[in-house]
Amino acid sequence: METLSTEKLQQLSRLESTVHYDRGARLVSARNETVVIQTASGETRELVDLMSSYAAVNFGHCNPDIRPFDQYHAHLVSFFTPPEAEYFASWLCSALGRPHSRVLYQVGGTAAVSAAVSMAQRYRPGQVLAVKGGFHGLAVDALAASDIAKNHVIQHTMIGSAVQGGYQLIEKGASFTDWEHTSCLLFEPVQGASGMLPLDLDWIRSLCAQARAHGVVVIADEVQCGYYRCGHLSYAIANGIEADIMLFGKSMTNGLFPFAAMVYDQALERAFDARGGYFSHTYQPSALGCFAAYSVAQYIDASDIQAQIKSIEQLLKSFAARLASEGLADDAHVLGPAASMRYVGGDAGRIARDCFERGVLIALGGWGNDRFRLMPPITIDPRKLEQALETLYACIKDDAKLHVL
Description:
Aspartate Aminotransferase, domain 1, Aspartate Aminotransferase, domain 2, 2 domains, 7-stranded mixed β-sheet, 4-stranded mixed β-sheet, 11 helices
C-alpha cells in the first residue's frame, strides 16, 4: 500500500482536531497503557495514556483477553440479534442487582440518552429536568440537556435552541418543586466534561427520591463514569442512588464498537403498544456490538478488577495530596482509578501540551479547562503510572513558575 504523506491528507476534516496536542498527528499503534503517535512532522512518539479515550478504553488498548472479532459467526442481519445479546443483557442486569430490568441496545451513549428521554416522554409527558454541569451527548435532545462544552460542538445550532424550551437545568444543590410538569430527571452521577466531578450524594439521592415519589422517571447517565471508571460497575448503585433507567456505554465494549445499553424498569413498557414493533436504527441489533460487550463481561468475570483499582487509587491519592501540599492544585476528587483536581494556575492546556511533548497524554475538564482528569486504563502497569505522574508533576511545576503568583 502506498505510504500517505501529510500533503495527501488535506481532505480529512480537522474539525475534530484537538486544541491541546499536535494537529495532524496520527495514531500508529496502541498496547495497554502505551500509544504510539506520528506527529505532523513525521516524528514517532510513544506516550503513556492517562485518558483511556475519555473512559472508552478502561481495560487497556488491544487487550489480548478481549478479542470478540477473531472468529465471529455473524455480522449484521436487521431485526435479529445473536444469542450473545441475551447473554450479555442477563449478565448486566444480574451484575447490577436488577434481575427484573430490561436492556435496550443503542449505538453509542448519545443514542442511549435520546432513547431514555424518549421512553420517559412516552411514559410521562412533560419537561426534562437536567443537572447543570452535565454533558450527555451530541444529538439535539441530548445536547439540550447539557451545558458545559456546548458551544464547542458543531451540533449546537438554532435547531437545538428550538427544543430547549422542553428542558430545564437545575443548579447542583438546589431544591426543586415543579414535579407536576416534569417528565424525567437526567443526570451524570459523576460529571465527566466538568472534570470528573461527583454530585453531592445526599443531594442527588434526595432529588431522585422526590422525583420518583412524584412519578417522575429518573435517568442515571453512567456512560462515562460506569464500567469501573469510578471504581464500580455502577457508581449510582454503589452509592445508593436509585434510578428507573441506567445508561452504559464506552468501555462496555472497551472501545471496540460504538455500543450502549439502556437498562430500564419493565414498568416503563406500559407506555408502548406491546403488539407492535418500533422502528430503530440499522445497527441496533449489530452482532459485533453484542460480541464485544459479552467479551468484556467475560473479561471482568475472569479478572480481579478491584485489586487493580486499589493499586491505581493509592497512587492517584498520593499524587493529589502532593499537589495540594505544595499549593499547586485543590478541589481534588479520587474515585477509584480516576482522579480530578483543579490547577491553581488556571487553563491547564499549556501543561497538557508539555506533557504530550514529554510522553504523557492527559485529559482536561471544567469550564476553563482548569481541571486535570486522570483516567489511566485500569490495566496500567503501576510503574508506568508512577513515571507518568512524575512527568505530569514536573510539567505542573514548570508551568507554575511562570503562571502562579
